[in-house]
């Protein structure tokens, strides 16, 4: 048995169609589709309306996720010095270096950079660098 392809023709038993001229248009019968939700950009418009009625200030709550307020990223010299003093990697490398152990090139570079920065901060803050401070315990 051979396969028959489906056709779009209605055949003799189907009701006859009206000509396109006589058919009612779909737009006039359905009307305008009802939208879902608010218009795009509503959350920003509300913020603009609120700022127009109130006085402008720089610390207003941002309606978007997150904030655009600037954050100070630079540490004070005292904070940098404290961070260097609490650096465990630097302390262990300094101990290994004082014991005469050879360090890799990367470890030596890290130790040199941090030691130089430490000395710069000490002189900038006006502290005196005493060589035998660790020998004396109170």
Automatic annotation (TrEMBL):
Q: Residues annotated as region Disordered?
A: 1-71
- Keywords, in A-Z order: GTPase activation, Ribosome biogenesis
Cite the InterPro entries for this sequence: YihI
Compositionally skewed regions (Basic and acidic residues) per UniProt: 58-71
Question: Superkingdom, according to UniProt?
Answer: Bacteria
- Protein name in UniProt: Der GTPase-activating protein YihI
Give the organism, scientific name. Idiomarina piscisalsi
